[in-house]
Structures are given as C-alpha cells and as structure tokens.
Amino acid sequence: xxxxxxxxxxxxxxxxxxxxxxxxxxxxxxxxxxxxxxxxxxxxxxxxxxxxxxxxxxxxxxxxxxxxxxxxxxxxxxxxxxxxxxxxxxxxxxxxxxxxxxxxxxxxxxxxxxxxxxxxxxxxxxxxxxxxxxxxxxxxxxxxxxxxxxxxxxxxxxxxxxxxxxxxxxxxxxxxxxxxxxxxxxxxxxxxxxxxxxxxxxxxxxxxxxxxxxxxxxxxxxxxxxxxxxxxxxxxxxxxxxxxxxxxxxxxxxxxxxxxxxxxxxxxxxxxxxxxxxxxxxxxxxxx
Length: 288
Prior knowledge:
With 288 residues, the protein is of the alpha/beta class. It has helices spanning 39-51, 67-76, 105-119, 144-155, 169-176, 196-205, 224-232, 237-248, 261-269, 277-286, and strands at residues 9-12, 15-18, 22-23, 56-58, 84-89, 91-93, 99-101, 124-130, 159-165, 181-187, 208-212.
C-alpha cells in the first residue's frame, strides 16, 4: 500500500489533511456526465484511496449530475471521522452535458441541500463557490451576493467552512470581508502559472491552494521535455507534475482524479517523489 504521509499535511478548515488527496470527478461517465462505465470499479477506487491514507476528497453534485456524490456515499458511508469532503456549487449541467452557471440564491441553496442529501450528510465540511467566469479560467467581477448566500447557510449549520473555485485574488479578498475562506481551487500546473502570486498570498495566510488539471485538463499539456524528464526519473508525466506541485508550496493540496486502481496507485506514489533543484528548474523552463 502506498504511503502518502511523506508529502506532509496542511490545514483545511479545522483539520490537518494529507497533502495528497483525491478528486472524484472522473468517477462519473464520459464528459463527467451520466453513470460510470464500471460502477464496482468506482467504489473500489474510492475505498482504495481512503485505505491508502487519503483524507481529503473533492467532489460536486454537478458531476454526473448527482453521480459522484451517490457513489461516494455508497462506497464510504459511514464516513471515517478524519475524512474531509469538499464540494462546490455555482454550476449545473444541461441536458446536452453543457456546464451552465447556477448562481441565483435559490440555485445555490438548492445545490447545498442536494449535496447534503446525495452525500448523506447533515453538514458539509467545505463548500466552494464555483465562479463560472471563463469556465476554466477566472474573470473579475463581484461575488458578494453569492458568497453571502453561502455564509448564511454556514451560519445555519449546513456548512462548516467556505472556499472559492476559479477565483481571482480580488474575489478572495472580497469573500474574506463576508466570511473566512479556507481554500481556493484554481487551474494551475507547470505551464499555467498565472496564479503564482495568489499561491504565495494564500500561503502567507495559512490558506490551502488546491490546483486542478495538473496536466492541463481539457487542453492537455503536451510537452516532449516533460515526457523526457519523467522517463529519465522512471516516473510518469503525471507523477512529475504532481511532485512539482507538492514542492512548489507547502499550502498546495492535490486532488488528482482517476477511475482506475492502477492510475490511483501511480498518482499516490508521487507523494514520495523528491525532485532535485536541477529537475525543478528544467520543469519550470517548460513554461518559459
């Protein structure tokens, strides 16, 4: 069994979690829509992740929709006492699998209740407000009204902690005038490093930064240099990308997702991979 403890821990809300977590998005069907190709495998992956020490799972009820949360509930409930489940609201899925904003107060409140029901929880550990912006890139604009809705639900005891997803530095600061922010989840990897300053700002405040798409997501990072570096170290490109993120800053928490047991094991193994200063410099030159 892979030991992920070598990557250390960081504070997420009121718990210290292992920096290597798991993202449940890929447990849904193709395009994050509909049921998984292999339901039993999806259950096995979740149980293997938790069995390997993962205590931070990222999900959303708009994955599927409703699919991943119901799988998490089936696989893991009753939940381990140390497990932190982070979900997000602010989007919905169209009948054509499109990603649509769902930012009205009624939609946000309904999404919180859907997450509670489908996860089988009375209180959600962390809820991120997913700002649609440019879908996979942040864009400026006030979020005060929407974040206030979630802050009120937090005051009602339905949510323990709040975070942001696809957010700018200005939006983080605006949200912090309304309620504490415990994490920010944005796209960030070796090449897409627009958030360098934000990562450091949050580290200074003790706030977790949770990057998604470590290899580029819907527009995959294609790099002969990355492949060559990985081959030279006897690792996969994904492992190198994850190891780089772990060494980038101590406040970075990882949520690599997969529906494969083999790939889960490979991803978790990145927790113990140490990159030399020379390798880090070579990787950072890819985006230069």
